[in-house]
């Protein structure tokens, strides 16, 4: 019994049609993607909890007056030595030694003397030096008006929740912490992308997913738009 053979035209059409996803194993890809998604989530879990908690405190401490963040402030006037420091950098070194601060100043600023309006007169304002020391649990701000002979120092000590906020802002921390926080931002991006890929690969109700994503996008635009 002779079996029908395909015509040469049908064979040519079949050969010309490219095979889509040739060699692509969809179940294996989704399994690997799920593992990758889980490992990325585990890496960012601790930092995500830290930044999430401190972010809530930052968002609501001004509006809702959350009493969790407490700062204890104290001020003092220090007489300058003789001879007085020659510039703001020298003042920062002297303050570090005088106050027993371990780390050098985070910020040193010099404002030159300048004229300022005072009613219908113009007065000459002397130069001002500002020095800041920032750590996780405290901050020290010093201000000196050139020629006064005294430097004003203000210290703020915070509790545990203030420490969380300083971690969130990166106050008193070096480049290593900034880079570590960048890995959290990168992991959030990867979690978002892999989550979308997993959802579209494992779920069949893609119209529902598109509606959810559109609603999220619309809510973001409506919330942020009026503030731009």
How would you sum up this structure, described in words?
Helices cover 49% and strands 21% of the residues. It has 228 residues and is α+β, with helices and mostly antiparallel strands. The protein has two domains: 34-57 and 161-216, no CATH class; 71-158, no CATH class. The strands form two sheets. The protein has a five-stranded antiparallel sheet. Helix 2 packs antiparallel against helix 6 (175-202) and helix 3 packs across helix 5. Residues 11-21 have low confidence and may be disordered.
A few lines on this structure:
This protein is of the alpha+beta class and 228 residues long. It is built from 7 helices and 7 strands, in the order αααβαββββββααα. The chain folds into 2 domains: 34-57 and 161-216, no CATH class; 71-158, no CATH class.
Within the largest sheet, what's the order of strands? 1-7-6-5-2
Q: Termini distance? A: 79 Å
Mean pLDDT: 77
Helix content: 40-55%
Domain unit count: 2
The backbone outline, from C-alpha atoms, is elongated
Q: Encode the helix/strand succession as letters.
A: HHHEHEEEEEEHHH
Poorly predicted segments: 11-21
Structural class: alpha+beta
Estimated radius of gyration = 31 Å
Total strand segments: 7
The largest sheet, given as strand count, sense and whether it forms a barrel, is: 5 strands, antiparallel
Number of helical regions: 7
Beta strand %: 15-25%
């Amino acid at each position: 019994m002779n079996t029908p053979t395909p015509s040469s035209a049908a064979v040519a059409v079949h050969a010309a049609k490219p095979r889509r996803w040739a060699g692509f194993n969809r179940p294996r890809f989704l399994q690997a993607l799920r593992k990758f998604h889980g490992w990325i989530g585990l890496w960012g879990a601790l930092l995500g909890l830290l930044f999430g908690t401190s972010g809530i405190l930052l968002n609501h401490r001004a509006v809702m007056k959350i009493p969790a963040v407490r700062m204890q402030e104290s001020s003092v006037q220090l007489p300058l030595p003789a001879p007085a420091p020659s510039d703001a950098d020298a003042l920062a070194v002297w303050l570090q030694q005088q106050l027993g601060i371990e780390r050098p100043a985070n910020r040193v600023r010099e404002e030159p003397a300048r004229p300022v309006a005072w009613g219908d007169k113009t007065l000459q304002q002397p130069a001002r030096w500002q020095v800041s020391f920032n750590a996780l649990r405290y901050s020290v701000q010093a201000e000196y008006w050139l020629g006064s002979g005294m430097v004003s120092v203000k210290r703020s000590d915070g509790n545990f929740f203030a420490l969380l906020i300083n971690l969130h802002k990166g106050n008193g921390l070096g480049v290593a912490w900034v880079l570590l926080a960048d890995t959290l931002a990168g992991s959030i991006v990867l979690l978002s992308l892999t989550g979308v890929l997993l959802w579209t690969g494992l779920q069949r109700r893609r119209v529902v997913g598109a509606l959810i994503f559109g609603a999220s996008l619309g809510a973001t635009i409506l919330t942020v738009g009026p503030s731009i």
